[in-house]
């Protein structure tokens, strides 16, 4: 490996580390999940993530600082969306590993078919994985 390749590898490792550090907080991970496939206003994020406006603002500032989200202003409303394919790819892989089940079509029913009374406390189901995201199988 020559010096240029080593420097590139170090830059890539730094970028991956930044992404993984941001995702290591469950609130930021949930925010990023809610942005997978669509942009959302701060008010929408506040409702679907369940954080106070102050706490949400702090987490969004960290995600902006780490260059994982981008913003768009429309009048008084600020919209957030994911920035870059790497974030969406990692989120899609996490979804495949931890969220996808055979019963995704009926998330409000229990195994015996009765209504699940905890659904009111549950966050919205994650959107379908974007077609451009990579699916990486875990190593065993």
From TrEMBL:
Gene3D superfamilies reported in the protein's UniProt record: Winged helix-like DNA-binding domain superfamily/Winged helix DNA-binding domain
Hydrolase in keyword set: no
HTH arsR-type domain span: 9-102
InterPro entries: ArsR-like_HTH, HTH_ArsR_DNA-bd_dom, Metal_resp_trans_reg, WH-like_DNA-bd_sf, WH_DNA-bd_sf
Key words, A-Z: DNA-binding, Transcription, Transcription regulation
Pfam family of the protein (one): HTH_5
Domain of life, source organism: Bacteria
Region annotation (Disordered) ranges: 103-140
MF GO annotations: DNA binding; DNA-binding transcription factor activity
Protein name: DNA-binding transcriptional ArsR family regulator
Organism, as annotated: Roseospira visakhapatnamensis
């Amino acid at each position: 490996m020559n010096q240029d390749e080593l420097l590139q590898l170090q830059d890539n490792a730094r970028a991956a580390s930044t992404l993984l550090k941001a995702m290591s907080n469950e609130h930021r991970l949930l925010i990023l999940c809610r942005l997978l496939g669509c942009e959302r206003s701060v008010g929408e994020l506040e409702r679907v993530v369940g954080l106070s406006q102050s706490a949400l603002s702090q987490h969004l500032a960290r995600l902006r600082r780490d260059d994982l989200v981008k913003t768009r202003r429309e009048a008084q409303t600020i919209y957030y969306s994911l920035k870059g394919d790497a974030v969406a790819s990692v989120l899609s892989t996490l979804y495949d590993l931890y969220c996808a089940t055979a019963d995704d079509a009926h998330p409000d029913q229990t195994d015996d078919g009765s209504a699940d009374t905890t659904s009111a406390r549950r966050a919205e189901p994650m959107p379908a994985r974007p077609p451009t995201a990579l699916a990486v199988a875990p190593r065993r």
